[in-house]
Amino acid sequence: MPTDVAITSRTKDSVSLSWKEPFDGNDHISGYFIQYSGGIPKVVGWSSPPIDTRGSGLSYTVGGLHPYANYTFRVSARNAIGTGGYSDSSPLVETEEDVPGEPPDISTVVDSSRSIRVQWSEVPFEQQNGIIMKYEVEIRERIGPGNLQPPSYKTAAESGTYLATALKPFTDYQFQVRAYTSIGRGMFGPSEVNRTDEDKPGDPPSNLNAIDEDSTSTTLALTWTAPMMPNGIIRNYTVYWVKRTDASVSGSVQTSTDTTKATVGGLEFYTEYNFTVRAL
Fold it and tell me: What is the dihedral of CA 148, 151, 157, 158, to 10 degrees?
C-alpha cells in the first residue's frame, strides 16, 4: 500500500496530495484510487466509488470539494493483478473559505413613521462556506414601480435583525440582506418592500389667499396650497380665524375632505381677521 500520504496544497474546493510508491507486487503499478472522509454534508466512512487517478503518478488534486470543510484521504495502488489495500489516513486538512450563499428569507415589521425592523434567517450551514463575519442590509427608497433610489448599506450589529432608522414617513423602502466571510460578500437574498407609518405633515399649507368674488360682507372664501411634505394622506384641513382687534373673538372651520378651499361665515362687516390653516 502507498505510504506517507501528505497534503501539498489546498484551495476552496480542492486538495492536492502526494504519496510514496508501494511495493509493486512484481508488476507495474498502473494507477491509484483515492477515497476521502468528511466534507459537507459529511461523508460517513469513506467516499464511494473511489476516485481513479488514471495514471501512475505519485500526486493528484482532488476537486469538487466543499469550502471550509475538513477532509482526510487515503490511497490504494492497482496493477494488472488487482487493487491493494489502502494507506493510512492523511493528516486532517481544511479547505479554504469562499464567499457565502444567500440568506434564505427576509421579513419586515414597521416600527414607526421613521423606522422599520428587518429580520432574516442565517445562511444555512452547508452554504456558509466559512465563518460569517457580518450581515449587511441594503436599503433603497422606492419612488415608483421599478424606480429605486441609490442604495445605502448598513451593517447589522446582531445576526438576524436590524432596525432601519432615519427613514422618511409614509414612504416605501426595499430591503435585502447579504452575508460576508473573510473572502468577501455573498449574493443578496430575496427582497421585501414595506412602508413606514404616517406622520404629521412636514410643512404647513402655504399661499393662503382670499377669493374676493366668492366672499360677502360676512363670509370670506379662502384657498391655499397643500403641504409639500404631507407625510401621509391629508384627510382634511382646519381654518382658524381670530379678530385682529379682539383675540377673544375667534373660531374655526374644518373641511370634510382634503379640498384646499373653505368659506368662513359669521364674520362681522368691515372687520379685519387673521387666518391660519392646519392640515390633518
Answer: 40
User: pTM score, two decimals?
Assistant: 0.85
Q: Collect all residues with Cβ–Cβ distance below 8 Å to 188 and sequence separation of at least 6.
A: 102, 138, 176, 177, 178
State residue 201 phi and psi, 5-degree precision.
-55, 145
Which tens digits make up the pLDDT trace of 22-46? 887 668 899 999 999 999 999 989 9
pLDDT 10s digits, 185-212? 999 999 999 999 999 999 999 999 999 9
| Distance in angstroms (rounded) separating the CA atoms of residues 118 and 176 | 9
Q: 175, exposed or middle or buried, with CB in 10 Å at 0-12, 13-18, 19+?
A: buried
Handedness of CA 177, 181, 187, 190 (dihedral sign): negative
